[in-house]
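hey
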């Protein structure tokens, strides 16, 4: 049976029926008291999710819009910045920074390996003119989680630098306590852990980030965060927002609060462990360095098997969509998204589909059902 597509990619992620029902409501005026009430409620819930007392602003745009906004609202042309680069999205922030005339120094790691926090510390200790550390927390392209907590701790000790973090696939899946870790700017997107369709992005700014914004001279108009803050303080938006996505956001955040932050984090951790152990048991390799796999994405290295052939078989046989590798990793890895509205059944179904597809193309190395049995043991643990 076709037209029963299951998304097991890092985004867009599955959308709960409650959220879809909210999304389908008739639009209301975005300057109306009714809509202002929704803005107020969602803003309060976004602060809860970010574990912050600082501002969390909503932009109609993708996660890239939020990251670009974080960069151009806090920095000036010629500023020295450090960009972490160990995947496709780290590369993107380097490109954005250079496009705006920033003086970029990179801390790099091979794709599949985490960034070394000590390299950031060394650069920060030796240059008091650095204005920002820009990095990706959960590198979606490789399934690697970087040590944002430690890196941010070194930035906090610097006189001038702020931390600008891409948390697009970590907010709503991982514990990212903004205030506790001292992160100055956090960007995220709606189609990931938030469990709603693409179209909204979120940017959290603390007092240090707003202080930096007073000195910023980079060009901005639609992404001018001062305009967003001014209207957010009145429970509104500077431009026409995606009204129906706000309906969806309100319902999704309500679901997240019903589940609770710790339960959300524990669920994602268990799904990561079940997926990783299952993949290992069927004879495939994990691409991310041991201990640095993201709770949101598991990347699988297929060695002499064409990863695209596996993805195609899973899609054709089971209508389950897995993500492929990007750039030089195309055909060499596939990625299993397990963030957002994902439950134990989804994990077992994906593993079973991968095993069955490997068996069909004659590449299964272990007895059929090994991966499912391994995942089941993890998922059954209290």
């Amino acid at each position: 049976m076709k037209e029963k597509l299951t998304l097991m990619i890092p985004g867009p992620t599955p959308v709960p029926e409650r959220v879809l029902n909210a999304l389908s409501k008739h639009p209301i005026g975005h300057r109306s008291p009714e809509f202002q009430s929704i803005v107020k409620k969602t803003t309060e819930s976004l602060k809860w999710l970010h574990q912050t007392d600082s501002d969390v602003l909503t932009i109609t745009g993708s996660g890239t819009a939020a990251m670009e906004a974080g960069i151009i609202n806090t920095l000036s042309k010629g500023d020295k910045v450090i960009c972490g680069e160990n995947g496709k999205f780290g590369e993107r922030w380097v490109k954005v920074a250079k496009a705006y005339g920033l003086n970029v120094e990179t801390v790099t790691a091979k794709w599949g390996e985490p960034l070394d926090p000590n390299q950031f510390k060394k650069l920060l200790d030796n240059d008091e003119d650095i204005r920002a550390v820009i990095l990706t927390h959960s590198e979606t392209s490789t399934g690697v989680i970087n040590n944002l907590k430690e890196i941010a701790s070194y930035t906090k000790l610097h006189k001038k630098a702020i931390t600008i973090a891409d948390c697009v696939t970590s907010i709503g899946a991982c514990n990212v306590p903004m205030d506790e870790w001292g992160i100055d700017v956090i960007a995220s997107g709606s189609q990931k852990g938030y469990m709603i369709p693409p179209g909204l992005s979120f940017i959290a700014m603390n007092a240090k980030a707003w202080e930096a914004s007073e000195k910023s001279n980079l060009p901005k108009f639609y992404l001018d965060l001062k305009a967003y803050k001014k209207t957010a303080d009145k429970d509104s938006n500077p431009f026409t927002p995606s009204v129906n996505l706000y309906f969806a956001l309100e319902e999704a955040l309500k679901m997240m609060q019903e589940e609770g932050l710790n339960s959300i984090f524990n669920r994602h951790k268990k799904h990561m462990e079940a997926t990783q152990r299952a993949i290992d048991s069927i004879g495939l390799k994990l691409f991310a360095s041991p201990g640095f796999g993201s709770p949101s994405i598991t990347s699988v290295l297929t060695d002499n098997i064409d990863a695209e052939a596996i993805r195609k078989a899973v899609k054709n046989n089971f209508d389950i969509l897995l993500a492929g590798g990007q750039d030089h990793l195309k055909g060499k890895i596939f990625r299993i998204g397990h963030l957002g509205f994902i439950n134990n059944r989804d994990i077992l179904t994906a593993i079973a589909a991968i095993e069955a597809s490997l068996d069909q193309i004659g590449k299964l190395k272990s007895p059929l059902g090994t991966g499912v049995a391994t995942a089941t043991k993890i998922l059954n643990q209290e």
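The chain has two domains: 17-258, 261-379. The domain at 261-379 is CATH 3.90.1150.10 (Aspartate Aminotransferase, domain 1).
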